[in-house]
Write a structure and sequence with these properties.
This is Phenylpropionate dioxygenase-like ring-hydroxylating dioxygenase large terminal subunit. The chain is α+β, with helices and mostly antiparallel strands and about 280 residues long. The protein has 2 domains: about 1-75, Single Sheet (N-terminal domain of TfIIb); about 85-280, Naphthalene 1,2-dioxygenase Alpha Subunit, Chain A, domain 1 (Alpha-Beta Complex), CATH 3.90.380. About 15% of the residues lie in helices and about 35% in strands. The strands form 4 sheets. Strands 8, 9, 10, 11, 12, 13, 14 and 15 form an 8-stranded antiparallel β-sheet that branches. A 4-stranded antiparallel β-sheet has the order 2-3-4-5, with no helix packed on it. The protein has a 3-stranded antiparallel β-sheet with strand order 1-7-6, with no helix packed on it.
């Protein structure tokens, strides 16, 4: 993917709900942009010189592109499922590569050490075998048959359970997690990470969730997810190298890193290098 190809991707740039209060100025891949509402209440995005950019409003967020996307924004059917709580978590700025932010979201092994007594705990540190594939028809990375013991898998969880996971990467800077729904067995809770690249080593992260939870307040749901991500931020901001290495010889993967390996291979296939390091330095 050329630089123009990277510009042609869809990126989250604002919460639609916040536009009712004021226009929102931000940055996308180094370019200043403004997100606003027009006279009809529709979202608009313009770059610094006044050029109108393409716009989609999905999953509570405004999405845009600095180029001309050749495809529509990926679909999350659970976002339209009746009875789900749609949770806009807000934004967290992180001094790391946007690709590092996505890869960290895919990492299971760090749960006991970074999210101790919430998403993991010792001695439950082993990552069991799971399946990873690049689904050619959808052109997405998927990890399935993932299982991990968690003391508190969700805000609604009353105690520790072995949680089933699926991970999906539908776009270079977005990831979707499907996990066991404690109050409704047979359904999946959906937790997403939408990443806005500000620069190659700086990003805004917009988590969003579609949950079955009739007990927790919206504030509690937001605070629970913010707590998890803020625990990740200190790790992300201290990773070396800062950019995501795409050369397989730069880092030594383990069995727990199968999803990361597939993600990096998929990025290389698409020549998506914004936020990546290609060779050892």
């Amino acid at each position: 993917m050329s630089k123009m190809g990277m510009l042609n991707e869809w990126y989250p740039v604002a919460l639609f709900s916040q536009l009712a209060k004021a226009d929102y100025a931000t940055i996308l891949m180094g370019e200043p942009i403004t997100v606003a509402l027009d006279a009809n209440g529709a979202a608009t995005v313009t770059e610094g010189k006044g050029r109108a950019l393409p716009v989609r409003v999905r999953y509570g967020h405004v999405w845009t592109s600095l180029g001309t996307p050749a495809h529509e924004l990926f679909d999350i059917p659970e976002g339209d499922q009746p009875g789900r709580r749609l949770v806009e978590v807000g934004v967290v700025r992180v001094r790391c590569s946007p690709l590092r932010a996505v890869e960290n979201f895919l990492d299971i092994a760090h749960f006991p050490f970074v999210h101790t007594d919430i998403l993991g705990s010792e001695p439950h540190t082993e990552v069991e075998n799971y399946k990873v594939e690049i689904r050619e028809e959808e052109d997405e990375v998927w990890a399935t048959q993932v299982k991990f013991y968690q003391p508190q898998a969700a805000k609604s969880a009353a105690g520790g359970i072995t949680t089933d996971y699926m991970y999906r990467v539908p776009a270079p800077t977005c990831s979707i997690l499907y996990k066991t729904c404690p109050p409704r067995p047979g359904e999946w809770d959906v937790i997403t990470l939408f990443v806005q690249p500000l620069a190659e080593d700086l990003c805004d992260v917009w988590p969003w969730m579609a949950l079955f939870d009739d007990e927790s307040s919206m504030t509690d749901l937001i605070h629970f997810q913010q707590t998890i991500f803020l625990q990740d931020r200190s790790i992300l901001e201290n990773q070396i190298p800062a950019l995501l290495p795409l050369d397989p010889g730069m880092e030594i993967p383990t069995r727990a890193d199968l999803t990361s390996v597939a993600y990096r291979r998929w990025l290389k296939r698409h020549k998506y290098t914004y936020g990546a390091q290609l060779v050892a330095q």
